[in-house]
């Protein structure tokens, strides 16, 4: 499964990650990698709650916003 994930820096110096195709699926982290790991878990939970479905692998496409 391929989903777009947008990662950007927040005002406090951390990072926010969001998956625009899954409304409300947002996570954060102190580092970019932590935000990416957290959004992957959020995506898995989101999909599991919708259909009781969890894909074996999620490929992230990361877009950077300034």
Describe the secondary-structure layout.
Elements (H helix, E strand, L loop, with lengths): L1 E8 L5 E4 L7 E4 L2 H20 L7 E7 L1
**Number of self-contained structural domains:** 1
Number of helices: 1
Q: Which CATH-level-2 architecture?
A: 2-Layer Sandwich
Radius of gyration: 12 Å
Span of the ends, CA to CA:
27 Å
Average of per-residue pLDDT values: 85
The computed structural class is: alpha+beta
Instruction: Name the helicity range.
Output: 25-40%
CATH topology: Double Stranded RNA Binding Domain
Describe the sheet with the most strands: 4 strands, mixed
Beta-strand proportion: 25-35%
Q: How many β-strand stretches?
A: 4
Following the backbone from N to C, one meets helices and strands in this order, namely: EEEHE
Low-confidence stretches: none
Shape: elongated
